[in-house]
Amino acid sequence: MSHNVETMAYAGELPWHGLGVPVSNDMSAYEMMEAAQLNWSVKKQPMYFMPNEDNSNWVNNSTGVLVEDKMLLIREEDNKQLDVVGKNWHPVQNQEAFDFFYDWVEEGKMEMHTAGSLSNGKIVWILAKVNETFEVVKDDVVESYMLFTNPHSFGTSLNVRFTPIRVVCNNTLQLALGSNNNGIRLDHTKKFDPHVVRDALGLATNSMIEYSNQAKHLVNKMSTKESRDEYFSKLFPMTHYEEEVKGYVRSKKAAYANRLHNNGTPGAGLVKDSWWDTFNTVTYMYDHKLGKSNASRVKSSWYGDASKSKQEALTKALQYADVA
How far apart are CA 166 and CA 310, in angstroms? Predict the structure, then answer.
């Protein structure tokens, strides 16, 4: 498995990114934690400085000089060094993250879908399927998921996001939860309280309704060759080299988006040339075509530039649809 994905398990059909070890689709939250090999904990350890001749040797050794304001965050099972954190930084254990889903799964409101570890344990994620769907047109279904991210690294917050997935092409999107454009975030200055984010399921339901309305608006508005070209060019502007040196009329990525749309991405036949089709050309590019590997696309789509770019693509598609 790619170095970006350390461990991963998935229930049901193979996920859009094509990674992971298959498991039963009726697992409890804790069984999924075990299957994804996430049943490990982290711990803060004192850091010590062992001066040598050039004063550059940092060690975790009690015979050295104690570093007063910093601690080393390690994975207890193998002493893997994850990051350097402050003394007041509160780690959230993987067990606590899975606790967040336990009741909802037991009550039948969610199903465990995927879970895994990225970047050698620095990012642990859990994706659960919420039992809510909508149909844009016949056979074009969008399912609702909730993504819980538990980072074991300094400077990143615990995060809960609403993630709808279009079934026909496995295109993903990160959307706001209520007024929180980046989902619900909790930093590590306080101990994790799952009750603080319990309203996330209700917010996800509201976001799903809003996204359904947006999708149905897009599918009823048709794009033209000219408007699509302008749309792709705005999303993928030319670099200085492409414009000034090569003299291109559009960027390579914009040209690629046009070719993908013209050739038809999965599900395009259901909604051909609508703004829903055009928007999904962009999400399909990010989820399945751009990037060096499936693992790198997962990381970018959930935590990197692709996540923001797809949100921008939706905003612009809605603007074009409004005047179509």
Answer: 13
Beta-strand relationship, 171-172 and 58-59: unpaired
**Rg for the chain (alpha carbons), in Å?**
22
As to burial, measured by CB atoms within 10 angstroms (0-12 exposed, 13-18 middle, 19+ buried), residue 182 is middle
Residues 272 and 137: their CA atoms lie apart, in Å, by 12
Half-sphere exposure of 238 (CA within 13 A, CB side): 15
pTM for this one? 0.84
Q: Over the stretch 46-70, which tens digit does the pLDDT of each residue have?
A: 988 776 655 555 555 556 788 888 9
CA-wise closest residue to 129 among 112, 115, 141? 112
Q: Which of 99, 115, 161, 101 is nearest to 10 (CA)?
A: 115
Over residues 205-257, the pLDDT tens digits come to 788 899 999 999 999 999 999 999 999 999 999 999 888 888 899 999 999 99
d(CA 200, CA 186): 13
Burial 200-234 (b: 16+ CB within 10 A, else e): bbebbeebbeebbebbebbbebebeeebbbbbbbe
